Amino acid sequence: MFRKCLAIAALALAATGAHAQAYPSKPIRLLIPFPPGGGTDILSRLVATRLGESEKWTIVAENRAGAGGTIGIAAAVRAAPTGYEMVMGQKDNLVVAPWLYKSVAYEPTRDLMAVAHVGYTPIAIVTQANSRFKTLADVVAAAKAAPGSITYGSPGSGTTIHLAGEIFKDAAKIDIRHIPYKGSNAAMMDVLAGNVDLLVSSVPSAMAQIQSGKLRALAVTSARRSTSLPDVPTVAELGYKGFDVSTWYGLFMPAGTPKEIVATVNTAVNKLLAQPETREAIHAQGAEAQAMSTEEFAQLLKSDYLKWKDIVRAANVTVE
């Protein structure tokens, strides 16, 4: 009987090892919770392409946009926990949105498994290159002279980017009007056309237009300057001490996904992020590559989730 038990245990371990080793045996679907062309889309496709090259995996990217990125996250939560469904989540839809939207049908720390942190990015306040606003001080002065006359676009209500704009309004004691869009590209087109005065955007979403000279970056909202925009001051440097709003990106799978699969993907992504060419490609998009263990990433999610409950309440912002 003892030998039989040992044999069964050995078979179980072998099966587990074979299961992990065989993964993936078919294409993996990667949900992107925002429209094509934005920062999340750019980084998601970059990671999917490079994982395909380095690991010989087939990753099919699918945009599932709407409601501040919560529709894509909800779809991932409902997916079968087989390891063949994952989503590129970020602070917007995992940490901020649950405290803003009354209808969010998931609790991120319970319904998802943190798989692999990819990177983080500051948020930028930008304007059209020929705008009358040359500095952030110009915006503040104009807003105080004519409250409510200045508009700013964001990729959607309930995003970290939207909150960055609202928190800045509160810090500067000004009244500027928020114009939500369905993604960064739509907001950017209206800023470039002069229909909206300012754009609050992730650096990856705005980077190409800043580099081309079509947009002027007035400030970044992180605690330190972006290495992609070293000449652009932080909001804190411009007199708003302690101002710090940034966002992060990472891969998640539905709760219940086998831990061996989660570990396999984490190892593959971290190996990818250690490659100089991948780090440079992410940096070129305005983000900073940052690898984490699954435990570290899960802790980041948990701590930020609790922290932003108070931030959202203090900002007094709600979204239907």
UniProtKB/TrEMBL annotation:
Gene3D superfamilies: Bordetella uptake gene, domain 1, Periplasmic binding protein-like II. The keyword DNA-binding does not apply. Keywords: Receptor, Signal. InterPro entries: BUG (IPR005064), Bug_dom1 (IPR042100). It comes from the Bacteria. Residues 1-20 form the signal peptide. The keyword Nucleotidyltransferase does not apply. Coiled coil: none annotated. CDD domains: PBP2_Bug27. PANTHER family: BLR1237 PROTEIN (PTHR42928:SF5), TRICARBOXYLATE-BINDING PROTEIN (PTHR42928). Belongs to the UPF0065 (bug) family. This is Tripartite-type tricarboxylate transporter receptor subunit TctC. It comes from Pigmentiphaga kullae.
